Amino acid sequence: MKQTFSMWRNTRMIVLTSISAALYVAVLMPFKIIPLIPGLTELRPGAALPVTLSFMFGPAAAWGAGLGNLIADIFGGMLGPGSFFGFWGNFLYGFIPFALFQALSTKENPLPCRLRDWALLVLIIITAASGIGLFIGWGLDLLKLAPFSALGNIISINNLIASLLFALVLLILIYPRVAQWGLTYQEIMADAPRPKPWLRKTGAVIMIASCLGGLMVGNLLSIGYLDSGFLSAGFSEGTTGSLAVGLGLTPFIIGILIAFTLL
Hints:
Layout: H1 2-6, H2 11-28, E1 35-37, E2 41-42, H3 48-57, H4 59-75, H5 82-104, H6 115-142, H7 148-180, H8 185-188, H9 197-225, H10 243-262
Antiparallel strand pairs: 1-2
Helix pairs in contact: 2-3, 2-4, 3-4, 3-5, 3-7, 4-5, 5-6, 5-9, 6-7, 6-9, 6-10, 7-9, 9-10
């Protein structure tokens, strides 16, 4: 967590935050005309970008994802109460990849060489996609803007497919050049304080369990308990949100916050 805030004292990291935000806006805006849930979310092939940038720019990519999503909401006519959760959900989406990689990998760079490298990257992407879907789905369900079984799942699946298809390909193509230029966060923030390895590993386990467990429990509550349909069918019963889902997912949100402090 410390490096996520201490990076604001580093000029190059601030520049990388601006670049990350600008790139994210550039790839989000063209698809605002293809909404999946009008006023809330749209088709997002650009969702692969925060994951790729996270492995390269670390915390700068996390802030860039949050700011980029907020700017895209403003210029795309989607700014509203849900944008608060959109900002922090996208921040989390950009935070999880580099934070989990630091905690769980013994390698300096994220380029996959062995089967277990690929397995770790896929697990990280699944966790990040589940995390953003959980957080935004929980928030907008609390605001009664959309049922969790619709929005949470659509965001998670949308981001997961985009990242699995494009993020790792972009990483393999771009990372070597960025590393050659000395622009990776590992080089720029080499002297930044970091938590002890056992704390990071504990935080990683809590983050994975909270994101994946929260998404599953959210569906059990939304679909099983409230009888809300899956994905777009979640609107079929006229459900817009439930206190039961909000309260039931709160422990998992707290788990994400605890993991954030440890990572």
